[in-house]
Write a structure and sequence with these properties.
Elements (H helix, E strand, L loop, with lengths): L1 E5 L3 E7 L4 E7 L11 H9 L3 E4 L5 E4 L17 E10 L5 E3 L11 E4 L7 E11 L14 E13 L8 E5 L7 H7 L4 E5 L6 E5 L8 H12 L2 H10 L6 E7 L5 H12 L3 E7 L2 E5 L1 E2 L2 E2 L9 E5 L1 H11 L6 H10 L1 E4 L10 E5 L2 E8 L5 H5 L4 E5 L2 H14 L23 H8 L11 E7 L5 H11 L4 E6 L5 H7 L10 H6 L1 H6 L7 E6 L5 H13 L9 H4 L5 E5 L37 E4 L7 E5 L5 H5 L3 E7 L2 H29 L6 H4 L17 H9 L1
Parallel strand pairs: 14-15, 15-20, 25-26, 26-27
Antiparallel strand pairs: 1-2, 2-3, 3-8, 4-5, 6-7, 6-9, 9-10, 11-23, 12-13, 14-21, 16-19, 17-18, 21-22, 22-23, 24-30, 25-28, 28-29, 29-30
Length: 703
């Protein structure tokens, strides 16, 4: 939901998701249309009508300069605007909360409230804050350092309720390495020596599953899951008896609660079928550390499952049943192995009643502890029979375990339907699109596909953006998308060759200097890896066309963050920050992707016609041409866009602040001012009104 309100001084644009509300804040005295965007002009205009007086009770009140009496023949002095005061009231309960931490002003032009609940109505009151007058006839009383002035501007919003709408979107916390998590559960922190990526170091974790106190363990898991696990279990529990069916695909399948939920469904008589990833390799068989050979002296080879496969099989085998019949159904009739694709990377569930599909659960969430309690993930329910039927048709084809890829240039034909490879099936189910999809539509794309044209289509949609792009990339940025991100509307001379050689890339270039693209990565890219990839491209004669993070990060239209906790968390790092800052710890449950595992992109999220692309695929060549994947393209649904937008900004702001803090520490700064101190002059405002700064673009976007 979106709501606006304004008075003579302030304008507020509120965007409500399910568990986040973002407020865009504007000072009305700033004349954006005047062409004078200098900070000094803005401040002069803003302060020209603001001063402070005291009422008979000693309370600060705002008044216009002309309405105040002169003192000793002189007008009252101006006071510096230091930020915003924001209060929130839950309308149903009447509970009011100040959102100003320790009474400090909010010194930015957007604010994220991350403590709201789904389906609630909230009222936000926004006022300006100034530094309290230093002289007062009531100076013997304890007075706040900063005070709110002016009449409050009130804006009301209702958060989305994912349990009742057509789209139910659920995000987990995805920010385990945070001050809040450490404060709540830091007593259970443990130190480990790890050797990730070949560099031994000490690191701390707060693993919720090893907390000895059952109540605290449950509290930690609930805090981290933030409704995602609960929503998935509730989705499964809708299948109540033998009239219901569940059709499932699973890549990683080890989370006990989810597995037990499916097992319980089997016990209720639900028809459960689960396609799961099964891959491995043939390796020399060994016995007592010796290689086994046959009678002819040839090495005997055996099939060894990969870790994902073996972990899944152990989890399946660990389930017990009171009824032998149910146990037999579980082990012999429930699971379908998917061997022939590169990776069976889907994670969706189709809910059917009497054989008719009614809902589908999809998204980025694997069925693992790390997916719920560690890295960021999303679960997306679509309560639409037509969409559910498309997933069921795809699932039925997948269950036959056909080859993932066709033999290119073979000229062979297929006599039997079950021999048709999935890339051909998927393009029959949904051909590659041409241009943008219709307004108010949902389109489903399945992979693998014959070509990477769908990935190019995603890049074209990104290139069509006029206001904003919000994009998460867990495993880097593929070349088609990197090329779009590498243009800021004015292609630099160093890239003109690549543009001439690729007309499609040239068509994607936009000239809107207010466009802002947010890119959220799991980790900071490696210069060494970049150099290797660039060298490889040059060997193939594609060096002029290659670009990556180290190219597009320089552009002012790209605002980039990557997963991080505050520096100083390792034992070797000392005296770099206050102890409360370097106490952040992850859960230790993720072995590969620590922070960002979502796979979604939003185009012009805050317009009336947003595009949301979300699902299991990583916007890569592999996810398009090789893996079993699914993606939703949702056009024109502002409610869905608001949920994804507010959750994106929650995660982006969380990680961006840590990136900048760590960067400042790396440059030798030991000042915690960026975290705890208030800037008491007008310098804090300057980036927000400097057209060359990203914060200026962000302020305009959120206005």
């Amino acid at each position: 939901m979106r709501s606006r309100n304004e008075n003579n001084d302030i304008s507020v644009h509120a965007i409500a998701g399910t568990r986040v509300v973002i407020l865009g804040l504007i000072l009305k005295q700033k004349d954006d249309e005047s062409g004078d965007s200098s900070p000094s002009a803005t401040l002069s205009a803003m302060l020209s009508g603001l001063t402070v007086a005291e009422d008979a009770n000693g309370a600060d009140i705002a008044a216009s300069e002309s309405s105040l009496p002169e003192k000793n023949g002189q007008s009252p002095s101006h006071d510096v605007f230091v930020g915003f005061a924001i209060d929130r009231r839950d309308i149903s309960s009447g509970k009011s909360t100040s959102l100003n931490f320790d009474g400090r002003p909010i010194q930015k032009f957007h604010y994220g409230d991350y403590t709201v609940e789904p389906g609630h109505q909230y009222e936000y009151s926004v006022r300006r804050m100034i530094k309290a007058p230093s002289r007062s006839r009531y100076s013997f009383f304890s007075r706040p350092k900063y005070v709110a002035v002016g009449s409050p501007l009130v804006v009301t919003v209702t958060t989305e309720d994912p349990s009742t709408s057509k789209h139910g979107v659920y995000f987990n916390r995805g920010a385990a390495g945070s001050q809040a998590y450490a404060e709540k559960f830091g007593e259970f922190r443990k130190w480990h020596r790890v050797n990730k990526y070949g560099t031994p170091h000490w690191t701390s974790t707060i693993n919720p599953l090893t907390i000895p106190d059952p109540a605290k363990k449950k509290e930690a898991c609930t805090w981290l899951s933030r409704g995602l696990e609960e929503a998935l279990l509730e989705f499964i529990s809708q299948a109540k008896d033998s009239s219901w069916q569940l059709r499932v695909t699973a890549y990683e399948f080890t989370h006990k609660e989810v597995i037990h939920a499916f097992a319980a469904a089997v016990e209720r008589g639900v028809d459960v079928k689960i396609i799961h990833h099964v891959k491995g390799s043939h390796r020399p068989k060994t016995r007592y550390n010796d290689v086994v050979k046959d009678k002819d002296g040839e090495v005997v080879k055996e099939w060894v499952p990969d870790k994902t496969t073996s972990d899944t099989q152990r989890a399946i085998d660990a389930v017990g049943f009171q009824s032998l019949d149910h146990a037999r159904i579980w082990h012999h009739d429930t699971f379908i192995e998917r061997h022939t694709s590169s990776i069976m990377h889907n994670k969706f569930i189709i809910l059917l009643r009497d054989g008719k599909p009614v809902q589908v659960w999809t998204g980025s969430t694997n069925f693992t502890e790390s997916a719920f309690y560690g890295q960021s993930n999303v679960g997306h329910i679509v309560r639409d029979e037509g969409i559910a039927q498309q997933y069921l048709t795809y699932w039925n084809k997948l269950a036959l375990d056909p080859p993932g890829r066709s033999k290119r240039h073979s000229g062979s034909s297929h006599d039997e339907e079950d021999a048709v490879p999935m890339d051909e099936i998927n393009e029959q189910l949904q051909p590659d699109p041409a241009g943008a999809q219709p307004h108010d539509s949902i389109t489903v794309f399945f992979s693998p596909r014959k070509t990477s044209d769908l990935l190019d289509w995603y890049a074209d949609r990104m290139g069509d953006a006029t206001d904003s792009v919000h994009f998460t990339a867990a495993f880097g940025v593929s070349q088609p998308l990197a090329h779009v991100l590498n243009h800021d509307g004015k292609p630099s001379p160093s890239h003109e060759v690549g543009v001439r050689r690729s007309p499609r890339i040239a068509r994607r270039i936009k000239t809107d200097d207010k466009l802002l693209r947010y890119i959220l990565l799991d980790s900071q890219p490696s210069e060494h890896s970049s150099e290797k990839s660039r060298a490889s491209a040059e060997k193939k004669g594609k060096g002029n066309d290659y670009c990556d993070y180290f190219d597009f990060k320089k552009l002012n239209s790209n605002r980039i963050a990557y997963g991080a906790v505050l520096s100083g968390r390792n034992e070797e790092v000392k005296d770099v920050a206050p102890s409360s800052e370097h106490s952040e710890s992850l859960t230790g449950l993720s072995t590969f992707v620590d922070f960002v595992h979502t796979k979604f992109m939003m185009i012009d999220a805050l317009t009336v016609n947003p595009t949301i692309i979300t699902g299991s695929a990583n916007f890569s060549i592999a996810s398009t041409e090789q893996n079993d994947e699914n993606m939703l393209v949702i056009e024109g649904d502002t409610a869905v866009a608001d949920v994804y937008f507010t959750e994106f900004m929650r995660l982006f702001d969380h990680f961006y602040s840590r990136d900048k803090r760590n960067e400042s520490l790396g440059k030798g700064s030991k000042s915690p001012r960026a975290w705890i101190d208030v800037v008491e002059d007008d310098s804090w405002m300057k980036p927000f009104f400097d057209p060359s700064h990203q914060l200026f673009r962000e302020r305009v976007l959120l206005s």
